[in-house]
Structures are given as C-alpha cells and as structure tokens.
Specification:
This is dTDP-4-dehydrorhamnose 3,5-epimerase. This protein has 1 helix and 15 strands, in the order E-E-E-E-H-E-E-E-E-E-E-E-E-E-E-E. The protein is mostly beta strands.
Length: about 190
C-alpha cells in the first residue's frame, strides 16, 4: 500500500496496489502489519457499512472521549467526497479540513485519527461506504458539527437544494459555536 500524506498531520490517504487481469482485480484491502508500520499502531474493533443515494450528506460526526474513534473509511460502490475536519483545540490546523474522493474505481481509503470530525457526501447514484473504527460506538458520546457550516470552506460538490440530511445532522452547531472535547496536547 502507498501512504499519501495530506495537509494535516496524521490524516492520510491509502492507495492499494491493485492486480488486474482478464478475470477482474485483486487487492489487499487491509494489513494490520503494514498499517502499524506505515500509518500508526492501532487495533480496529468495529466495522460499519452504510448505503446512501445521491445527495445524501452524513456528518460531521465524532465520538467524545473516552470513546473517541479513529476511522479507516472506503467506498466499495459508487463515489463519495469524504472529509475530515480538525477539531483539536490548540492544533495549528484547527478548523481546517482534508477532502478526498473515494470511489469503487480508485479503491482509496482514508484514515481519520481521533480528534477529527468526519463526514461524506454521495456523488454517485448510490454508494456503499465502509469504515473500521478503533473504539466501539457509544450513543452518549455522539457529537457533531454542522456539515453545512460555510466557515469550513468545504466544497461538497452537491447543490444545497439537492442535499439530503438526517434531522440529527441539521441540528449540529457551526464550528464557532462549538466547544471541542479534544485538546492537541492529548494527541
């Protein structure tokens, strides 16, 4: 696997080595040994999958400590724009984001460490999205910031009038009204 560093330390894109022939393709989607060596030592404990249609926007979500989660995400069908926003107080990149298009064709994965809010927008007719988490989900630790917060400067590539959000995601505060539970000194 090739690790592509981004503008925010710790947030990386993972590009697999794909073997194609007349039968189709093969690639190793995850190797604990390689991940530990090339990204960071981690133990994933939960896998999740969602299916969504064009215009669905999910996020920007995170889990509060002590249940904070790192995520390794990928799109196995369709295409999504995936985004990580730094919400670590005191971080030189606080409020900044990294966006990457994940598709069934490029097979890329995106690693989002603890201390980041995460969200995605579906760019294709439908998309199947998978993610590994290094901590179990806890409802009481659920948190979020507004996926439509214009101050974040995210181009979701979905016209606002076509965006489909859950009721929960419409109620998250914008970044300026948000009190982060994460401190850069903890990472």
């Amino acid at each position: 696997m090739e690790i592509i560093k981004t503008s925010i330390e710790g947030v990386v894109i993972i590009e697999p080595r794909i073997f194609k022939d007349a039968r189709g393709y093969f690639f190793e989607s995850f190797s604990q040994r390689e991940f530990d060596e090339k990204v960071k030592p981690i133990t994933f404990v939960q896998d999740n999958e969602s299916m969504s249609s064009y215009g669905v926007m999910r996020g920007l979500h995170f889990q509060r400590p002590p249940y904070a989660q790192s995520k390794l995400v990928r799109c196995v069908k369709g295409a999504v724009l995936d985004v990580a926003v730094d919400i670590r107080k005191g971080s030189p990149t606080y409020g900044q984001h990294v966006a990457v298009e994940l598709t069934e064709e490029n097979h890329r994965q995106f690693f989002i460490p603890q201390g980041f809010a995460h969200g995605f927008a579906v760019l294709s007719e439908t998309a199947v999205f998978q993610y590994k988490c290094d901590n179990f989900y806890h409802l009481e630790a659920d948190g979020g910031i507004s996926i439509l917060d214009e101050s974040l400067g995210i181009d979701w590539r979905i016209p606002t009038e076509k965006a489909i959000l859950s009721e929960k995601d419409t109620k998250h505060p914008v970044l300026k009204d948000f009190e982060t539970p994460f401190k850069i000194s903890e990472f």
